[in-house]
Amino acid sequence: MKKTLLFFLILIVILIYGKSSLVDANTVVADEEQFEKEKIIIENLFKQRSKLWNNIYEKNMKTNEWIQQIKNTVTEPLLSFDIEAFEEASKYPTDIDKVLNLEIVNIENVTYQKNDMQAKIKILWIMQGLSSKYEEEIDYIVILKKENNHWKICDYYIDK
What we know:
CATH topology: Nuclear Transport Factor 2, Chain: A
Helix content: 40-55%
CATH class: Alpha Beta
Number of helices: 4
C-alpha cells in the first residue's frame, strides 16, 4: 500500500514538473508599475506615425524622405503596408481624417519575449473629419520589436 501511494505521489510530482516546463520560460509579464513606461513608448510611437500620416497633404514630402522617417517608427510587416499605402495616397490623393491627438487610456497584458513586446491597449483618437471633429476609443493588440535599442511598431490589430 505504501509503495503504491509513493508511486502515485512521484508520478504526480513528475506531471506537475513536466507541465510547468512546457510553459515558455522566455515570456515575461511586466508588473503594473512598469506599464507606465510601456504606455509612454507605445503612445509616442503612435503619435510619431500619426504625425507622418498627417504630413502627407500638408507638406509636399518626397517618398524617400517619408520612408526614411517612417522607418524610425515602424518595422515589418507594418512598414511594407505603410509604404504601399503612402505610394497609393501619393498617386491617388484622397481625403483622410486627420489625427489631432491620441491618448492611450488603458494598457494591460504587457508581455516581453526577447526583442518583442506585446500589449493590449485602448486608444482615444481625437480626429478631424471632413465636416467635424470626433472622438473614438478602440481596443488594440500592439506588437513592438526592438531594433538597434529602439522600439518600433511591428503590427497592431483591433481586439474584439
